[in-house]
Amino acid sequence: MSNWTDAHCHLQDRFLGDREIEATASEVLARALAARVDRVVVIGTDATSSAEALAITELSGDVDIYATVGLHPHDALQDVEEIVALARRGHPRLVGIGECGLDYFYEHSPRRAQRAVFARQIQLAQELDLALVIHCRDAFDDLFEVFDVEGVPSRTVIHCFTGTATEASQCLERGCDISLSGVVTFKNAESLREAARLVPLERLHVETDSPFLAPVPFRGRPNEPAMVSVVGEFLAELRGEDVDEVRRQTSQNSARLFKLSPR
Fold first, then answer.
1. Is the pTM of this model over 0.90?
2. pLDDT digits (tens, 9 = 90+) for 196-217
3. Alpha helices in the chain (DSSP H)
4. CATH entry, 4-258, from 3.60.20.10, 3.40.50.720, 3.20.20.140, 1.10.10.60
């Protein structure tokens, strides 16, 4: 019987430290395994967290750990070439570039810088044949403009998708997969639930984005990979699908996206 895959989480110390009760990555992963989550992808957001993500993959245990390296749009003024150098150095558990993309909601970095750094990481994913993990918030028009110039890597996912059904359709038409987090369970997320219903099951991923965005009924608590099952079970009910099939297919989708080793 298949287990869940958390397609996007942050287990670096800086993130795990943002909670009242201290936790280690090993402890969090042990709880994940108890919840039938046996694969996680730890995401980098800058040079330091990317190096830490790669180091976490070397933890021993029964959960398979993979990592990405990337520069988040919030940090687009940092040197993206550090990410390029880290990715080119290679690592047996490096499976993706990102999270990278555009964020016009917070706009912590100038839009021009965000676009330039995003384009560079698209090029890097294409060069190294790695998955591309995209963060996009209130910026889909510009996202599609960058795609029109740079192209879309064959294995691309919009992580923590929070757009509309129309935007989801546009992403799917361009070859992107869609990954959904605990946001889909939130009371005010009906437009996102509409989008979630139309994503083909073979293009769908589930994630926690932990320690952020814990799903209902755990809102306000630190999120962690064990809770990806809550997201998956909610989606199965929302879409009228069997939970076992959603578990199997989303895990298979993430294995395809990231070229994960056969179990």
1. yes
2. 999 999 999 999 999 999 999 9
3. 13-16, 25-34, 47-56, 80-89, 111-128, 140-150, 165-173, 190-198, 228-239, 243-258
4. 3.20.20.140
